[in-house]
């Protein structure tokens, strides 16, 4: 995956959950466990980058709107 490809955050999380399940639940040989671990670390980094970009975008939107923010409870 190149740096300019968009990461589907939900898909990354689903893959991370699958990797964790496999690492915790399956009898894997060392090579397969290491491969899964490396894949998980890469996916975690991409997900964190996606979250950081989202935070920047939120801050930009708030700055463009004068920083006005109204917080309301979600339950009504």
Description:
This protein is an all-alpha fold and 76 residues long. The chain has one domain. Helices cover 68% and strands 0% of the residues. It has two helices and no strands. Helix 1 (9-25) packs antiparallel against helix 2 (30-64). It is elongated, with a radius of gyration of 18 Å. The model has no long low-confidence stretch (mean pLDDT 83).
How much helix is in the residues? 55-70%
Radius of gyration: 18 Å
Query: What is the count of distinct domains?
Result: 1
Shape: elongated
Derived from helix and strand composition plus strand pairing, the structural class reads mainly alpha
* Mean of all residue-level pLDDT scores: 83
SSE sequence, one letter per element: HH
Pick out the low-confidence regions. Answer: none
The total count of strands amounts to 0
Q: Strand content of the residues, in percent?
A: under 5%
Total DSSP helices: 2
Largest sheet: none
Please give the alpha-carbon distance between the first and last residues: 42 Å
């Amino acid at each position: 995956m190149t740096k300019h490809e968009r990461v589907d955050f939900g898909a990354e999380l689903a893959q991370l959950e699958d990797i964790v399940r496999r690492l915790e639940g399956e009898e894997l040989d060392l090579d397969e466990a290491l491969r899964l671990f490396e894949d998980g670390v890469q996916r975690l980094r991409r997900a964190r980058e996606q979250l950081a970009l989202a935070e920047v975008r939120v801050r930009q939107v708030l700055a463009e709107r004068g920083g006005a923010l109204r917080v309301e409870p979600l339950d009504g």
